[in-house]
Write a structure and sequence with these properties.
487 residues; 15% strand; Alkaline Phosphatase, subunit A; globular
Length: 487
């Protein structure tokens, strides 16, 4: 094991439903994200950064394991689950390498229950404060988490997720805005700087792995502190009350396109999250550890139509395997190691984070289950010297092919092409159109996706003109699916 001073601290920030276009660095007309831009300026932006699913649970499961979640049957809400016990996950691997480990935020790998392996304190995190969103339709209330709130909300409690949080597995009340609370806890966990002059690992504080999983910017984004509403001249919006409305009708009026000021509420939550990320970066700088800390930011899936997220210029949204459903903001910063102010076209994935962190930490992966990610160091090294628009495959430091499969839709992405298939006969398309106001498409489409090309509309389909590419990518999908099934 290398000396502590040679291994970075690791801060992994995962947000919820952040739209691809919603950063001021992407010239958004209304999103203000100075601290995410600051993070990008200090590191490399992966323009072709992907998660493994267009919804949160399977995406998060794949990320924590560094492996395709389909290996244990996690594809959609009804089948997603935390990786099985025999598979080591990110905090277990880093804790085994001597890291202090902390988790602060939303947990939603599937229908987890208190005490399950999916709870952070049960899979390698030494310190934790979290909410189990699997108990509440994937949501955590932004403001209220207590036994009193659970009683007051009654039937609506499970719709909004107002139950107490869990601190190291024990229920605790929290009535502070969660984005601020999770940040406070993360900063406390990171602590003050250790003695930089320490010569041995025993003399120096162990490096940390801190994972912050914000519930921002998921709906219902109007749940803002009164001072934040006043500062933005935004009206108060009531939560669901079963005595006053039917939930389905209320929900339809509480999401896009019907919610008045909907985009403004979303942007408010985004700005608060950006500010809190800035606080963590400030803390690292103030304690002299910024250059020794690898910071990664990404979101769990594409921006959501119902939540007013913007994925431009990408087509599609959360729930779909269009680019807008699985291609996400993906920022990596480690001053002096990761090239600053660069943009990479390499195809990279949330699967790559575990092997990258393990390599940086000097962690032993020999006993870990097979991983599907790859060390990102090759990609960021290439990014510093590659011309704009360079290939995104292995010669650019990234993957040659990425695979996606939710059970009723699958896709194959290469540096040049995207093949996507949807089985509309399952009813998922109609349900998502009716409830979430988004279209996942139908049938098989092939589109070119070279540098700068993002059009996945029906008019862009070239499958009839390139049957040989369709055959090649279909074979890749079938081979991949067969390998996972036999593993």
């Amino acid at each position: 094991m290398t000396a502590t001073t040679d291994r970075p601290n690791i801060l992994l920030i995962v947000s919820d439903d952040h739209g691809y276009a919603d950063r001021s660095a992407r010239s958004s007309a209304d999103a203000r994200t100075p601290h995410l831009d600051r993070l990008a300026d200090s590191g490399t932006t992966f323009d072709n950064g992907y998660v493994t699913a267009p919804i949160c649970s399977p995406s998060r499961a794949g990320l924590i394991a560094g492996a395709h979640q389909q290996r244990w049957g996690a594809r959609w809400f009804d089948s997603s689950a935390f990786p099985p016990a025999e598979r080591q996950v990110m905090p277990e691997i880093l804790a085994g390498a001597g890291y202090r480990t902390g988790y602060f935020g939303k947990v939603h790998y599937g229908p987890e229950q208190p005490g399950d392996r999916a709870c952070p304190d049960r899979h390698g995190f030494g310190s934790s404060l979290y909410g189990l969103a699997g108990l509440s339709m994937g949501r955590l209330h932004y403001l209220h988490h207590s036994e009193q709130a659970r009683e007051e909300y009654g039937e609506a409690a499970s719709r909004h997720g107002v139950s107490p949080l869990f601190e190291n597995g024990v229920e605790v009340d929290c009535e502070q805005h969660l984005t601020v609370e999770f940040t406070d806890r993360a900063i406390d966990f990171m602590g003050e700087a250790a003695d930089a002059a320490a010569e041995t690992e025993a003399e120096a504080e162990a490096p940390f792995f801190c994972m912050v999983a914000y519930n921002a910017v998921h709906n219902f984004a109007w749940q803002l502190p009164e001072d934040e509403l006043a500062a933005r001249a935004l009206p108060h919006h009531d939560d669901f009350d079963p005595e006053a409305a039917d939930y389905v009708d209320w929900y339809d009026g509480a999401i896009s396109p019907h919610l008045e000021h909907g985009r403004d509420y979303y942007l408010a939550q985004l700005e608060i999250m950006d500010r809190e990320i800035g606080r963590m970066l400030d803390h690292l700088e103030a304690t002299g550890r910024r250059e020794r800390t690898l910071v990664v930011y990404l979101t769990d899936n594409g921006g959501s139509t119902c939540n007013y997220g913007d994925n431009a210029p990408l087509v599609g949204t959360k729930y779909s395997l269009f680019e807008g459903g699985v291609r996400v903001p993906f920022l990596v910063s480690w001053p002096g190691t990761v090239p600053a102010g660069e943009r990479s076209q390499a195809l990279v994935s949330a699967l790559d984070l575990l092997p990258t962190f393990a390599a940086a930490a000097g962690a032993d992966l020999s006993q870990a289950a097979p991983l599907d990610g790859r060390d990102l160091r090759a990609a960021w090294e290439v990014a510093a010297s590659a011309p704009a628009g360079a290939p995104g495959g292995a010669d650019g430091g990234g993957h040659d092919v990425l695979h996606f499969d939710t059970g009723f839709q699958w896709a194959v992405r290469t540096p040049e092409w995207k093949l996507r298939w949807v089985d509309a006969s399952t009813g998922h398309r109609e349900q998502l159109l009716a409830v979430e106001h988004t279209d996942i498409g139908d049938g098989l489409t092939l589109v070119p996706l070279g540098p700068g090309e993002h059009d996945e509309s029906a008019a862009a389909d070239v499958s009839a003109q390139h049957p040989e590419v369709v055959a090649e990518l279909t074979a890749l999908h079938e081979q991949w699916a067969g390998q996972l099934a036999s593993a």
